[in-house]
């Protein structure tokens, strides 16, 4: 993962964290980051034979539109969040630490356009004990595709 981060040409920082605090809300509260700067990487499975997957990055203040946008982009009738077991099997990463850096090459990376509007983002570092702090430009530098309205605002 570090090799890929370095090859992106974008500045980044590795932020160490307590694995028990890796989930977004707990991490942001404990370490003083805004949920509006927290980009979650969610693995989604399209229910087909064989199944298809995508990694989707959305701000913690939004909700991934799995049932419409993601399902249509995957070209399947049904889509859902991948299970923790599927996530580990496919990426080698546990939920709470999933990162788009170093995913298998056949998994597309889709980023909600709101993520790109942030000055900086904090996202999974490949393990529950670290995060990556960087400009969102690092995502397009690794080939992620920006998707308008991949996520929806969460109503209060």
Summarize the structure in words.
This protein is α/β, with parallel strands linked by helices. It has a single domain, classed as YbaK protein (Alpha-Beta Complex), CATH 3.90.960. It has 6 helices and 10 strands. Strands 1, 2, 3, 5, 6, 7, 8 and 9 form an 8-stranded mixed β-sheet that branches. A two-stranded antiparallel ribbon has the order 4-10. A hairpin with a 5-residue loop joins strand 2 and strand 3 (52-59). The longest helix has 9 residues, at 66-74. The model has no long low-confidence stretch (mean pLDDT 94).
CATH superfamily label: YbaK/aminoacyl-tRNA synthetase-associated domain
In terms of per-residue confidence, which ranges show pLDDT below 50 for 5 or more consecutive residues? none
The number of distinct β-strands equals 10
Summing up helix and strand content along with how strands pair, one would put the structural category as alpha/beta
Estimate what percentage of residues fall within beta strands: 25-35%
At the first level of CATH, the class is: Alpha Beta
Distance between the termini: 36 Å
| Helix content class | 25-40%
**Topology order in helix (H) and strand (E) letters:** HEHEEEHEHEHEEHEE
Total domain count: 1
CATH topology: YbaK protein
- Provide the CATH architecture: Alpha-Beta Complex
Biggest pleated-sheet summary: 8 strands, mixed
What form results from the Cα inertia axes? Answer: globular
Radius of gyration: 14 Å
Number of helices: 6
């Amino acid at each position: 993962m570090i090799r890929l981060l370095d090859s992106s040409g974008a500045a980044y920082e590795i932020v160490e964290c307590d694995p028990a605090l890796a989930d977004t809300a707990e991490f942001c509260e404990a370490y003083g980051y805004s949920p509006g700067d927290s980009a979650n990487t969610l693995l989604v499975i399209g229910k087909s034979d064989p199944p298809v997957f995508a990694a989707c990055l959305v701000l913690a203040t939004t909700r991934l539109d799995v049932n419409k946008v993601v399902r249509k982009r995957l070209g399947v009738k049904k889509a859902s969040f991948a299970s923790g077991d599927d996530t580990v099997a496919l990426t080698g990463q546990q939920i709470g630490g999933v990162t788009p850096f170093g995913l298998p090459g056949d998994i597309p990376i889709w980023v909600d356009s709101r993520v790109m509007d942030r000055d900086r983002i904090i996202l999974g570092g490949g393990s529950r004990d670290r995060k990556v702090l960087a400009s969102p430009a690092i995502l397009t530098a690794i080939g992620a595709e920006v998707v308008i309205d991949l996520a929806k605002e969460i109503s209060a």
